[in-house]
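Sequence, please.
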């Protein structure tokens, strides 16, 4: 394929109400939409919505690297295969401060910019799967599933509001509920978790996300107390750099712990997977393609984890429908679809991107469109 035109458009999404995590409180998300046009007029779409607190570049660096990537792609010819897209991105070669470098553009220093890489890679994958006349998920894996389980993200603060939100989500068909914890006294979090469990009964999965907001001592207390409520798992209970603390905590937790922000550091991967000797530091992994630099690096990690018996699931970085569509295709291509993915966040925004699109969850599932490419009109 030959890239004949590139377009970069700013995007902005406002949240209906602030979303509080242990790391920050979010009221809006900003980023860029990427469009790549091939010689036959097909349009490939990608999205970059950096999330600095999770390990991506800043908005300004993202824009800088996107412009650089797009300059390198214009009028370039790529073979119509996955290898060509993988080979287009070089691994870091100038130390830990450097990101993936697009081989197709003039040599220059490239800051670490996984969100920018993600956007360009997704647009190329969208184009390639359109050219192959297959859905993007089947480009990633021929045996990809047709639908993806999705969890509901509960955003209320007070226990009574959380309970009502949980009941509504279950009535809509969700089997897995997720709520943010940490950043507040444990007594408050326990009251919130208790309210949700009492509201939905024992058969609904409850998943927690601490966003690295507990110290190891706090996490030990939280695991001991919150474990009584029959949790499915807890995402990133301790700070991402504290891998030994995560390892120790997983040894005593009565439910799986999932590494999330820790995946942003390449140096952590061998420890997380147990490849450096010893047992893995977690039993599950949260794949954010925006943070990992694209769908292909995320899929490669998931396959590596599955080869040693560990689970992975996909979540968004509170981003737009283009990114969520790509993440849904990735989720469908994972070795296992047992754990629900966190892709049902469109309802959190004041105005969701198009009024209708196929990636809105229905009864706790996203059914992927059986059309070539990403499945979204430009």
């Amino acid at each position: 394929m030959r890239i004949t035109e590139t377009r970069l458009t700013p995007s902005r999404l406002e949240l209906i109400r602030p979303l509080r995590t242990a790391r920050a409180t979010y009221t809006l998300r900003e980023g860029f939409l990427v469009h790549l046009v091939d010689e036959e007029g097909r349009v490939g779409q990608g999205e970059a919505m950096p999330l600095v607190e999770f390990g991506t570049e800043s908005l300004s660096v993202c824009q800088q690297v996107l412009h650089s990537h797009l300059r390198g792609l214009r009028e370039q010819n790529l073979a119509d295969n996955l290898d060509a897209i993988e080979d287009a991105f070089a691994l870091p070669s100038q130390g830990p401060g450097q990101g993936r470098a697009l081989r197709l553009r003039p040599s220059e220093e490239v800051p670490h910019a996984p969100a920018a890489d993600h956007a360009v890679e997704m647009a190329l994958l969208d184009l390639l799967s359109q050219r192959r006349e297959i859905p993007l998920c089947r480009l990633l894996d021929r045996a990809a599933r047709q639908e993806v389980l999705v969890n509901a993200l509960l955003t209320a603060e007070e226990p009574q509001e959380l309970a009502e939100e949980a009941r509504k989500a279950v009535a809509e068909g969700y089997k897995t509920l997720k709520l943010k914890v940490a950043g507040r006294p444990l007594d408050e979090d326990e009251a919130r978790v208790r309210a949700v469990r009492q509201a939905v009964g024992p058969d609904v999965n409850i998943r927690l996300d601490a966003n690295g907001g507990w110290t190891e001592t706090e996490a030990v207390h939280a695991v001991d107390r919150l474990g009584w409520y029959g949790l499915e798992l807890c995402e990133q209970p301790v700070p991402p750099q504290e891998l030994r603390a995560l390892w120790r905590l997983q040894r005593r937790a009565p439910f799986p712990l999932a590494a999330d922000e820790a995946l942003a550091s390449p140096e952590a991967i061998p420890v997380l997977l147990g490849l450096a000797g010893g047992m893995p530091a977690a039993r599950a992994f949260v794949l954010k393609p925006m943070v990992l630099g694209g769908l292909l690096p995320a899929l490669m990690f998931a396959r590596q984890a599955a080869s040693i018996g560990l689970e992975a699931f996909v979540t968004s970085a509170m981003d737009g429908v283009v990114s969520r569509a790509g993440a849904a295709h990735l989720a469908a291509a994972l070795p296992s679809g047992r754990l629900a993915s966190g892709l049902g966040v469109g309802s959190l925004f004041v105005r969701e991107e198009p009024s209708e699109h196929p990636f809105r969850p229905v009864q706790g599932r996203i059914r992927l469109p059986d059309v070539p490419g990403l499945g979204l009109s430009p």
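The chain has a mean pLDDT of 91.
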